[in-house]
Predict the structure of Pilus assembly protein.
Amino acid sequence: VYSQWRKKRQTVDTLAEGFDLREKAVACVLAGRVCVSWFSLEFGDVEPENLEVLLGKIH
């Protein structure tokens, strides 16, 4: 079930399906709605490959 859910990351145009809470928080940081310092304290670093996917979804 998890792998099917994650595959939706590539097929939907938004962050609505296939993305977890951490990834949605990264998108808010990239959009300037969430403080990057807070995110780092709460969630740690983001993998570069995930960052590329998120950038594609929010721009």
Notes: Residues 21-59 form one domain.
